[in-house]
Give the backbone structure.
Amino acid sequence: MTNNNKDIVLIGDSIFDNQPYVGEGESVISQLKGLLADKADAHLLALDGAINTDIPAQLEALKRLGADNKKVFMSISGNDFLRYRMELETAIRTGVHPFVALDEIKQRYQATYAKTLKQVMAVCDDLTVCTVYNQVPGLTVAEQIPLGVLNEVLLQQAMANDLPILDLRTLCDSKADYAPVSPIEPSKFGAYKIAKAITAMAGY
């Protein structure tokens, strides 16, 4: 009997492409494939270190897979945040008011993420977006505030486009969800939570 279920495609950054930070079979894509079994397949196009401007290259690979018959999940902006954080710290050291510097970053990120969504939605019609998780071990209050601003922009843009949202902030809520070798990446436990949530949201 033919399986008419849509395959799942993961685009974005190392939240999905966490294979280097966990053991064999413990990554998001490996556990997702295991949970799907024979219901559908899963494809990893996300790339460790990717930022919003890297998404078009992943979309070219998505087109080759046949984007019109895929459920696409996107986790992007964590690495953008790391860059913005450094910019914010530099601006504050040079005397720029923190609120002014943060608002400038917010405006730039809003334009960047809106462009990313437009690019992805032009290629696929079944997209779910993820927030950037905010319970990474060692994350300071000074880092949580700008991250919260970026997540607010992300949520507003997703809702404005009627897109489903997978909230990694509430999903990855334990220290054990983060990889010991690199705490900004999902551990095997965090990867399982993410894979299970993707499976459920995809209806499998």
About this structure: The longest helix spans residues 98-123. The first strand starts at residue 7 and ends at 12. The two ends are 17 Å apart (CA to CA).
